[in-house]
Design a protein that fits this description.
The protein has about 450 residues and is of the alpha/beta class. About 30% of the residues lie in helices and about 25% in strands. The chain is globular and about 70 Å long. The structure holds S-adenosyl-L-homocysteine. Keywords: Cytoplasm, Methyltransferase, RNA-binding, rRNA processing, S-adenosyl-L-methionine, Transferase.
Amino acid sequence: MSQTKPRSPSTPHRQSQGGKDFRKRVQRSSKHPAATTAPQAASKPRLGNPAAKPCITLKAGREKSLQRRHPWIFSGAIECVDGTPASGDTVAVRDFSGDFLAWAAYNADSQITARVWSWREKDVIDANFFRSRIADALAARKALGLERDSNGMRMIHGESDGLPGLIVDRYGDVLVMQLGSAGPEHWRDTLADILQELCAPVCIYERSDSDGRELEGLPVRSGVLRGALPDKVEVTEHGIRFAVDVAAGQKTGFYLDQRDNRALTGTLAAGRDVLNCFCYTGGFSLYALRGGAKSVLSIDSSQEALQLAQTNVQLNALDAAKAEWQCADVFDALRKLRDQNRKFDLIVLDPPKFAPTAAFAEKASRAYKDINLLGFKLLRPGGLLFTYSCSGGISDDLFQKIIAGAALDAGVDAQIVKKLHAAADHPVLLTFPEGAYLKGLVLRVVG
Ligand code: SAH
């Protein structure tokens, strides 16, 4: 087996984007932050009997996280690998004494060497297994009535839907599939066939170009998998229409996870001067405009995203005169606004993933503190700050501490008036807390 360098796992659900990998920014002042803080890959597992059925045997005592039903098996937990499993092959996982624990997808190239498909020994990991898992995920969204609010929806949310590494987002009658790990990569055609059969979309488009692919040793790939991509793809969420660029947009084209948080912002925007930082295609801005904001200044570093945002204002016949768009680095733009003594009544900060893993937490914390400190300074008394982190490496607690530090340094008192998370089509499996990557706080600056 070839030697691979230590890799840190990254939650695959919302990668850093914008043509920039934010990890480069947070790494700037330190040459090798990951080398000091990332979990080191332990020595490679011992190779067992090559003629045996593919099986991973864990080191003594390393079965505990699996017994708690956490679906990831790290390379350091593995005692030996029997058979000669290829990347994506299904392997049995056994504890040190040989007892069955799970069926998992194998990937020798990842620090997460196996991801669990099933905990039941009698399960067979085949097309029927995937059909049943996918049907369950679709049925759950129906049963929760999520289609009432939007025809854009995360239909499959990876580990939390029992399908590690698989993301499927629906935009009207187009599905976008993202394969984030070797397991779903192996079953790519089977998964596409099942989605075609169960959802009958006009197109299944593959966007397997997330940061996480690199960590899995998988090549970047995107393009049409089934059907044909219509010229225009659109979603309507909470009555607002958004054009979605499935082929070249960020992530799978749109940030579905913020749907309900955007709607909340809309309900609080009336009569306010709003600043929307990291606005992408105008999500929060459009809700604020519809909600009766006095003015909305939106900032993003992506010119393409800003163009689509302005198209979206037209699509919804909103008052373009109230909207100002700025293509800029938010870190610089906030400083300029502070120097100009501009003030706002409602600010949204929804940056990309500054800390994909805990290894980046320290540098990312500084970046979060910086923008939030500036945000607090730009708010009028009584103003509202909607602040988010989609970093898997930043916990709820740490995020709240960072924001508290930012308010203190900005010299303001603030109250948390609401805690926010991703919308319900992004469920979090209780045994997989990494699924809760998106955290938000609504803060009110005390006058
Ligand atoms: N709030 C958006 C999603 C934001 S995603 C919505 O509801 O749809 C994060 C955005 O930050 C992306 O559009 C990306 O282009 C932008 N971005 C990343 N780094 C940036 C920077 N330093 N300055 C400005 N924008 C940045």
